[in-house]
Amino acid sequence: MFAYEFMQNAFMASTFIAITCGLVGVFVSARGMSFLSHTLSEVGFAGAAFAVFAGISPLVGMLLFTIVSSIAVGKLSVKASRREASISAVSSLFVGLGILFLSLSDSSSSYATTILFGSIVGISRGDVWQLVGLAGAVLVTLCFGFRSLAFDSFDPDGARAQGLPRNLLSIYFLLILAVSVSIGAQIVGSLLVFILLTLPSAAAKYLGHTLPAMLAISVGAALIGVWLGLYLGYITNWPVTFFIAAIEFGFYFIALGIRRLRD
Amino acid sequence: MSSALISINHLRFGFHDRPLYSDLNFTLAQGSLTSLIGANGVGKTTLVRLIMGELQPVGGTITRMPGLRLGYVPQFRNIDSEYPLTIRSFVQLNQHGLWPWHTRAEKQALDAVLKQTELTERQHQLIGQASGGEKQKAYLAQALLTAPNFLILDEATASLDVNTKTELMSLVRQLNRNSGLTVLFITHDLQLAREYTDQYLLLTPDDYELKPTSAMDMAKMPPELQPAEEVQ
Questions:
Q1: Are B75 and B24 in contact (CB under 8 A)?
Q2: Taking the CA atoms of chain A, what radius of gyration do you get in angstroms?
């Protein structure tokens, strides 16, 4: 299997993406932002469609759209009660734009399918380095604000009492999330990138009782999902995304079961 | 006499159409243990926010002693039964080192605070499944982790049963006596204020008083603060 360069590329890219999404996902889950990560995936689709229309790289289009819209959501939803409505509003606009750009650019429907469902085995070595670079940038950025972000995510009332710059932290995290969505979409597709951002961390929430344990479980579940998904996709010729979704669902389901048994 | 940690002089503050204080004057001495009492809406939390510097006075001054390190334990926390972290991990959130991993010195400081708040044995319990008293102790421990010399507790005992209240207040008083921690304890509970704090600051809609709790005259306290009469 590893004799093929496309499989080597796929494993390298997905390893870095799984680590990034697994780590970032823990904060997505703690901050109650699963819905936003889903929305950003749709926004990523619009970004990629725009890129095709404008003749730029899909990844650049995705980054541009997800970053702009995550900041827009952050600014629009200062009050938590307004967040859901703001997210819905921003996502409707961007999905509409995605459809518009796709129709304006005359590209075939197969291209739309690629954006939505991913094409891990279709990425080149150059793409891999680009993804590794972006994933590395996310990890380094995450490292620097880690403690404050953890405090604000797991105990917002305590973080406020300690006078942490919560608005700044929120924007900082939204940017990290936007980049994670854009790179994650390269393997599982923009429609399902939230799988890697929400399910491994949701499983980790039930199994890990400390922050390091949650991070390790989340990254582990994401890695097993993408590796096993790629292998099963290789031997069956079924879509990799399907296997990743099914495996991550399995992890979540098992974690929930273990938690129930413990209670 | 010990020096003043906080001095409030001619403080005036209010929100738009609702004046709260017109001329508030008091000092909190280093090492004092004070309860802040008053009915709902009289401006207890607002006063705390002014002391913390979150709000600016309309008139007058608030002088903070140089070197003041303030710890605040807020009234509300959103911890449900599915909350993932243990007591230890929760308390640890308030350590602000640059790197994600904790140093040995940080772990030692955490151990010391857990011991001080009598949580050592229960530190690996999930906080979402801990008792109300353990939760409050964990909130207290988290605030103590930055080694404050002035601690503000906002209605910390509001949701606790009598025994747990007593236990928590004994702990707070112990911290005050042993470590010289200055404490401002916001409460509705006159009995608790009288029993466990040295002085009280009573806010009423048009006045205030700061007196030793030994001089507290229950009969003269605002009716909203009177303990509920026991049903026979």
A1: no
A2: 18
Residue B223 to chain A, least CA–CA distance (Å): 31
Classify residue B66 as left (phi > 0), alpha (psi -120 to 50) or beta. beta
Q: Which of A24, A33, A37, A30 is nearest to A210 (CA)?
A: A30
Owning domain of residue A157 = 5-262
For residues A231 and B115, give the distance between their C-alpha atoms in angstroms, rounded to a whole number: 50
Q: Could you tell me the two tokens for A79? A: 């009050």
Q: What is the CATH number of the domain that holds A104?
A: 1.10.3470.10
- Inter-chain Cβ pairs, chain A and chain B, closer than 8 A: 65
pLDDT digits (tens, 9 = 90+) for B38-84: 888 888 889 999 998 888 999 899 999 998 999 999 888 889 888 99
Domains of chain B, first to last: 1-69+149-225 (3.40.50.300), 79-147 (no CATH)
**Which residue in chain A is spatially nearest to B102 when comparing CA positions?**
A147
Q: Complex ipTM, two decimals?
A: 0.88
State how far the alpha carbon of B5 is from the alpha carbons of A113, B67, B150, B182, B202, in Å: 66, 9, 8, 8, 19
What domain count does chain A have? 1
